[in-house]
Structures are given as structure tokens and as C-alpha cells.
Predict the 3D structure of the following.
Amino acid sequence: MFEGSWHAQSGAALCKLSDLSWHGCFVNVVYPPNVGEHTTIGVQLGDTVVELRGQVRHVWPRIGFGMQVDTTWPQTEVERQAMRALLNEQA
């Protein structure tokens, strides 16, 4: 699990992320945004704050939501390196 925060048109809150990959993640939060909403999540990966942008695909009330990450993410090489280290991938 990773500590983070999310914000969307319907609200914002601290959260915990699980199942983080290049394509998406699950966000554990009591009051999730709506399916289809565009959402931004900031997550601390080591010394780097990675910003995830995507769209809510699934919602489980009082549990969290599944987010599909935009294909343009990550934006910077620093973010890409943090994700590679997390996923044990080589450049």
C-alpha cells in the first residue's frame, strides 16, 4: 500500500493505493468519486511524488475505486524511474 491523495470534480481526500501498475491502480477511500470522472492522484514513491492522471472505471462504495491511468503518464523521466524501481523493471 502507498499513501497518497486524490482529487476530482466531486471531491478530494487522502487515500491509500494498492495494485499500482503502468495501466491503473485501486484507490482505497471511503467516499470515492463517480464512475467516469477524471481524477488526479499524488503518491509518494521513495523520494519522488508521482502524479497519476486517469479515469474512474469501477466504484465500490465505502471501499474505493479502480482507476485507469492515462497513456500519457508518467510525464517525467523522474516519475518513470520511480515506477520502474517500484515494479522492479529495468530501463
Summary: The domain at 2-86 is CATH 2.40.10.220 (Thrombin, subunit H). The chain is about 10% helix and 50% strand. The chain has one domain: 2-86. Strands lie at 2-8, 11-18, 24-28, 38-45, 48-60, 64-69.
